[in-house]
Amino acid sequence: MKLEHIGIAVKNLKDSNLLFERLFGQPSYKVERVDSENVSTSFFEVGESKVELLEATNEDSTITKFIEKNGEGIHHMAFEVEDIHAEMKRLEGEGFQLINKEPKRGADNKLVCFLHPKSSNGVLVELCQEIKV
């Protein structure tokens, strides 16, 4: 449906929040810990999209490994979908490799799943669907 957010791996969420507050001229609208992913996140609204900062909460986090290998920077691109299950099935049928076979709860009230970068030109792609209450 649209580019929902761009995820940026950071070493220090507090310092990065200050940097991005200066960049965007506004504060983060949400800081959230996602224990299932071993990250703390912070979200900024930028027009119709968002920027998500991700800080590892422990050494087992994929963000820790990403920063060790690549340094801080763009980690993933997330696209909003209407039906995450249908989109996962469609993309798998198109030959994309799913990292997780079932969507899981992510930050910012979303169900999420990821496509392996090996199947998408080196880009980690996240699909996300708003959880309807």
From TrEMBL:
Keywords: Isomerase, Metal-binding. Pfam families: Glyoxalase_4. The keyword Isomerase applies. Gene3D superfamilies: 2,3-Dihydroxybiphenyl 1,2-Dioxygenase, domain 1 (3.10.180.10). It is an enzyme of class 5 (isomerase). PROSITE patterns: VOC (PS51819). The keyword 4Fe-4S does not apply. Its EC number is 5.1.99.1. PANTHER family: METHYLMALONYL-COA EPIMERASE (PTHR43048), METHYLMALONYL-COA EPIMERASE, MITOCHONDRIAL (PTHR43048:SF3). This is Methylmalonyl-CoA epimerase.
